[in-house]
Design goal:
Pathway: Amino-acid biosynthesis; L-histidine biosynthesis; L-histidine from 5-phospho-alpha-D-ribose 1-diphosphate: step 2/9; Amino-acid biosynthesis; L-histidine biosynthesis; L-histidine from 5-phospho-alpha-D-ribose 1-diphosphate: step 3/9. 15% of the residues lie in helices and 28% in strands. With 130 residues, the protein is α+β, with helices and mostly antiparallel strands.
Length: 130
């Protein structure tokens, strides 16, 4: 279950803010966002890339439902709230620079809005042979 590293502290105290210890570590872009790589917890399959602000990360840690910031709609969205293709969060980690979040989930249905299992199902790019 997620919540390691003090992520549950704010929730247990009735606060709706991200734990200050986590917030202080995050390195956000100019829009206050951090990229989140989403991975299937048991296979390691990379499902998608999304964006999180502090509130999205807080909600993800405290509810166990993957919550992201939609840059196109400028609002929070819970993955699968309308499609049913939910992501049950198993763990959350920051990378060594605290500028990327890794969210490991149990994906129900398609991760991509196109209906594909992952957002990386398109034809692979060709690599030059050496």
């Amino acid at each position: 279950m997620c919540g390691g590293g003090g992520g549950w502290v704010g929730w247990l105290n009735g606060s709706m803010a991200l734990d200050p210890k986590i917030a202080a570590r995050l390195k956000r872009n100019a829009d206050g966002l951090v990229p989140a790589i989403v991975q299937q917890h048991d296979t390691g399959e990379v499902l998608m890339l999304a964006w999180m602000n502090d509130e999205a990360l807080h909600l993800t840690l405290t509810t166990g439902s993957a919550t992201y910031w939609s840059r196109s709609r400028a609002k929070l969205w819970v993955k699968g709230a309308t499609s049913g293709n939910v992501q049950h969060v198993k763990s959350v980690a920051l990378d060594c620079d605290a500028d990327t979040i890794l969210v490991k989930v149990d994906q129900v249905g398609a991760a991509c809005h196109t209906g594909d299992r992952t957002c990386f199902d398109a034809d692979p790019l060709e690599l030059p042979l050496g």
